[in-house]
Please model this.
Amino acid sequence: MQLTSTEKIDITNIGLMIIACCVAMVLPFELFLFSYAILGPLHYLTEISWLHDKKYYTKERYDAIILVVIGFLISLKFFDKYIEIDFPEGFDANLAYIALLGSIIFVTVKNTFYRIGGIFILILSSQASHNFMVFFTVFLPTLIHVYFFTALFMLYGALKSQSRFGIASVVAMILCPVILFVVFPDKTFYPPTAYSMNAYELFKVVNIRWLIHVQGVPQQADMPAWNNIIFHSKDGILLMRFIAFAYTYHYLNWFSKTKIIQWHNVPKIRFAAVIILWLISIGLYIINYSMGMQWLVFLSFLHVLLEFPLNVTSILGIGNYFKGRLFKTKSAQT
Model:
């Protein structure tokens, strides 16, 4: 059986998922911290560069400026403990709401009047995001981005390429978290080190909100109680397996498809700048993990926001594929 280059990449991705799944089961905190610090910065830089060349998958290039401004403001909100700016309650949720739904307008609407009117309506209605605060401020830029949108991107690619192993890779993407939750559920192979627990400090909000809102863990009175649940309980370890897998494979999926996506095919000066910034970022993470994360917080938020139009394009592409199949079936029947 002769394999196409796309099918070879799909098989490679299934293998990468298995590897990420196995390591996440044994060393969830360490795998996440390694992937986030080493693979993460290179992913941000190369994806933003690639999206720029693709005109951000929007109707107008200036749409990206709106997303950049939103990313800058959300980054400021991240540092609200250190700067003297009194941000309104739910300010970051409002911005994420406008960015996500605004991306639908950026991708689908060409008429300037309708575009301005649509954005204006989103601004007026953005208070509705407060009813879904945790979704917009915690889950959307983290687990929704790295897992759900990655799965949709893979499905869209599989449907377009008609690869014999494309759908299998999507199925594997769905099965891996299930495996991580049901295989050895009571086994902690290696407890997190003191360094890992300290380095993970800024990420704990994701675990806490997921444990409360998804896994139904009761609210705890203080942070020491939460630390015990996050780093040492069954619920905490199982969740961290999923988080480590989702982030690691999100990055590996991007780099494994270099030949297809061609994100490396950019001017030499830009590519050199990307590599230099990546090496500086790694150095900062090595010196102090918290410093590295704070250095890259803007790029981290920005690459999530700039990817929204691509996410919308993937969802529309999947919908159009199945709509075409449905109409084709109806035509054949008549």
Remarks:
- The mean pLDDT is 92.
